[in-house]
Structures are given as C-alpha cells and as structure tokens.
Design brief:
This protein is mostly helical. Among the domains are: 59-291, Lysozyme, CATH 1.10.530.10; 304-372, no CATH class. 50% of the residues lie in helices and 7% in strands. The chain contains 25 helices and eight strands. The protein has helices at 2-23, 40-48, 50-54, 58-65, 80-83, 98-110, 120-132, 134-157, 167-172, 192-197, 212-230, 233-242, 244-253, 260-263, 269-272, 274-286, 300-303, 316-323, 327-333, 356-371, 375-390, 404-411, 415-421, 472-479, 483-489; strands at 305-310, 314-315, 341-342, 350-355, 393-397, 434-438, 462-465, 502-505. The strands form four sheets. The chain has a two-stranded antiparallel ribbon. Strands 2-3 form a two-stranded antiparallel ribbon. The longest helix is centred in the first third of the chain and has 24 residues, at 134-157. The protein is elongated and about 95 Å long.
C-alpha cells in the first residue's frame, strides 16, 4: 500500500513535466517548426486542461441532449436512497484527490485491453461530466439503458472491447438525432463518405446514419479495420475522430512513433481532447454513484416504443392524420427519413418506430393507411382536377431514348396526330424537344385546317380494380382522363376510393 502511494505521488509530480516535454519537442528555437507545434502560452493552457476542453465538441453534444423532450423528472426505476451508499445530500457534488482518480482508472484498465490512464486532460473532462454538466450526465446514464444492450451485443459480435460503447457518449452524448457542424450524423457520428464505405444507405430520402442498428454495426466494422491498421486503441480512437490521414501525419511529425500521447501535440485541436474525454466518460459512468449521479428516466425512449414494417410508400402526414401520432414523435423516432416520407415498396420494406399504442393501431389499419389521402393531397387533387377541366392539352418534353411511337403509346394517341399537332414532317425527334399533346386525341386533328366532319370516336370501357396506393389522381394520369371523368363514370361524390373497388374507365 505504501509503495502504491509513493508511485502515485511520483506520477503526479512527473505528469506536468511529461506533457511540457511532449508538447514542445524542438530544443532548437531556430529549427523549422510545423504549424501544429504550440507556443509557450498554448502549452501552458493545454497542460492545465482548459484549452483541450474548449476545443472539444463534447460540450456541444452534451447541450444537444437538453433538446430531448422525453425525460421524466424521476430517476430510472431505482431507489436512490439505497444507491446513495455514501449518504450524500441531494445536491452535493463530491470531489476527490487525483490519487483516487488514478486508482479507480487503474482498476478500469486492469479489466480491459484499452490502456486507461489518468492525467490533467482526463481530469478536466471528469470535471465536465461529474461537475459542470451533471444533469446531462444523468440523462446519458438513462440513455445508456436504451442503447448499451445494442452496443454490447454488436461489439461482442465483432470481438471488440465492450468499453468502446462509451465512444458513442463522446460522439453524440447518446442523442439519436445528433448532427455536428461538420456534417457527421447519428449516435456514432458518421461522415457521409465513411458511412457509404461501410454500407450505410444515404440518399435524398433515407439516411441510415440515423438508424441505431445499422450505424452501430458500421461503427464496429470501422473500429475493427482501424485496429487492424494501428494495433493501438488510443490511435484507433484518434483515427475514428479525425481520420487515418491526420493520425499518419502526426506519427510522421513525431518521428514515426506509434503512441497516442507521443503524437498528441501534432493532432488536430479537437482530437487532442478526444481520448481524454473517452477515458473521463468511461470513468464517470463506472463511478457514477461515487459522484452522486443517477440515471434519469428517458420516458418513451426506454420501453415505450415499438417498430412496425412499412411495405408501401408512406408519408409522415398520413401516419399523423390517420392514426393520430404526434408529428414530433414520428420525426424524432425516425430521423433517417429526411424528407418525411418512407419510400417503401413490395420489394423494399422499411422500419417505422412509433410509440407503442400507435404501433398497435398501425398494424390494425395498415392497408387502409396506405390509401388514405391527407388534407394536403386532397387539396392538390382538387387543384389538378380544375386544371384538367379547363385544359385539353399539355406539353411533353422528350426524354433520351423516346420515340414518337413510344410517346403515342404512352398517351393513347396516334403518331400521325402527334406529327400534325406539332407540324412534324419526319418521325425523328430530339431529347429536350417539346411536343404538344391533346388529351382527347380528336381536337385539332389537323392543325390549321377545319375538318368538314370529324369521325366519331368509338367508346370502349374497361374495369380497373383499385390497388393499394391508387388515388383518383394517379388513375387519371394512368388512363389519360380527368378526375371528374372517373367520378362521373362511377357515380363517385367524394375523393376517396377503396382497395378492391371496381371502377369503370372509358
């Protein structure tokens, strides 16, 4: 015990000296100094830990947790009186000597392959999590009950240290909707290019960086590949934060040494605080009770939601109006759908997370939900209907690969009519060319001439059975007629049609 105390004191005395030597490795003041080497004032600030905290994004991410509205003002199904084995006062903030921090962090290191260590920078972040942002840390503790089971399962699948789950706390503070000023998204803060490299689907409508399951697996794959390259967990964390390129440059500037603390002064400013923040949050989460911290109840996020499968194109508005799910809930639980629509189809299904009572309702009314027209869509159809009633013609812009034959077939008219309407002498057309098309096919059959007697069109009737997703607008477009025509042919008064309904089309 006496030996351990002496070692602790010696390390504390050496620690400031170690960082002052590492931060400024150039003895010759006239030598060429890379831009990443700091001056004396910057060295002083960094050795105090102040600058490292200020340059980190940890504070920004912690503050975003305050935007989550589902937390309750109660602790998570626990009796704090029983957990408070140190008999702290309700608002008491405990402080400890550096030797205590060092002893506890040594204990963490003894149970992991990650070399947890203590220094002034780690201490600065311990103060952030355990003192300055205590309420935020309690929220993260609550969120850990939501996401850590998923993280641990996936980390175990890829044979990675389970302690890497704390990395997501540094990245996003466990806020599933987190986004950084640099463009990183989700719990694990993937950049666009890296996300695509690891199989995350990112397009105009869907961003899987916001999908906890998909992004967690991608993060494990990325961490695994980084460890295969560096074989040092602190270098892996640094590369995860600033990219392998910046880590490789820092290693070269440090003389090729493969050690995080040795290349520390040559890393980007934000990355200098990254590993210290990781060590600090791992420490605080493991010794939360010792710091009088307890997990706040995250409300619906804990056990109050369920996931349903969407099998057809669906807008958030439809779910909001037809089932009554609050729009803010749909958006928060499903941030991967960036335009508030789910582009599902019979071939491609998508998940939708909803509060549990609404998830049950979704299953009960799923078929009719897809066909439901929102107030906005009904209004749009009414506008389209009025336009169709006063306009007998429209303009078609020729696309690459189209011919007069394909266009005539598409609009149920003849090639000769298209040529007459547009005064074409040949059958060749160009991409981008605009063609006038008449819906009826009869008016203006001969442009510039008045026919003495127009032939009477022979009416034919077919039956259309309404399918999931059909609307009066889509059917009018499909059969090149107006909405009012379909309603007149079938004695329809409103704008609603039902799956399986038979409609006459003339």
């Amino acid at each position: 015990m006496k030996y351990r105390v002496l070692v602790t004191i010696a390390l504390l005395l050496v620690s400031p000296y170690f960082f002052s030597q590492v931060v400024d490795p150039y003895d010759d003041p006239n030598s060429d100094r890379p831009e990443t080497v700091l001056d004396e004032k910057e060295i002083e600030d960094l050795n105090s830990g102040k600058a490292v905290v200020e340059e980190s994004t940890v504070m920004e991410m912690l503050d975003m947790v305050s935007n989550i509205s589902y937390f309750k003002d109660v602790y998570l199904d626990i009796d704090t009186a029983k957990m408070n084995i140190y008999h702290y006062g309700k608002y008491e903030v405990p402080y400890f000597d550096d030797s205590v921090y060092m002893q506890r962090i040594d204990a963490l290191a003894a149970q992991s392959t990650i070399p947890f260590t203590f220094n002034t920078h780690v201490k600065s972040f311990i103060n952030v999590y355990a003192v300055n942002k205590r309420q935020h840390s309690s929220k993260m503790l609550g969120l850990s009950y939501v996401y850590f089971p998923l993280f641990e399962e996936m980390l175990d699948k890829y044979n990675l240290p389970l302690e890497l789950k704390y990395l997501a706390m540094v990245e996003s503070a466990l806020n599933p909707t987190a986004g950084s000023h640099a463009g990183a998204k989700g719990l694990w803060q993937f950049m666009l290019a890296t996300g695509k490299d690891y199989g995350l689907n990112v397009n105009t409508l869907v961003d899987e960086r916001y999908d906890p399951v998909r992004e967690t697996e991608a993060a494990c794959q990325y961490l695994q590949s980084l460890y295969a390259r560096y074989e040092d967990w602190f270098l892996v964390l640094a590369a995860y934060n600033c990219g392998p390129g910046n880590v490789n440059k820092a290693m070269m500037r440090a003389g090729g040494v493969k050690n995080y603390w040795a290349i520390w002064p040559y890393l980007p400013k934000e990355t200098r605080g990254y590993v210290p923040a990781f060590i600090a949050v791992a420490y605080v989460m493991n010794y939360a009770t010792e710091h009088n911290l307890y997990p706040l109840n995250p409300g619906l996020l804990m056990h109050g939601t369920d996931t349903v499968t969407v099998r057809d194109y669906l807008a958030f508005d439809q779910v909001n109006e037809y089932i009554g799910v609050p729009m803010e809930d749909i958006k928060f639980f499903n941030p991967q759908y960036t335009k508030n629509v789910i582009p599902a189809s019979s071939k491609q299904h998508y998940p939708l997370r909803l509060p549990m009572k609404y998830a049950l309702r979704f299953v009960q009314v799923e078929d009719s939900l897809y066909a439901y027209q929102t107030k906005a869509s009904v209004k749009q159809e009414q506008i389209v209907e009025k336009v169709q009633e006063v306009s007998d013609s429209f303009t078609h812009k020729v696309k690459k690969g189209e011919s007069l034959g394909s266009i005539a077939k598409k609009y149920h008219v003849t090639v000769s009519n298209i040529k007459k309407w547009n005064k074409l002498r040949r059958d060749t057309i160009q991409a981008g060319q605009k063609l006038v098309i008449y819906r009826s096919g009869a008016p203006m059959a001969q442009v510039g001439k008045t026919p003495s007697k127009a032939p009477k069109a022979q009416a034919t009737t077919r039956t259309h059975i309404v399918k999931r997703g059909d609307t009066l607008t889509s059917l009018a477009r499909k059969y090149k007629c107006s909405i009012s025509d379909i309603k007149k042919w079938n004695n329809i008064r409103g704008n609603n049609i039902q799956i399986g309904q038979k409609l006459k089309i003339k």
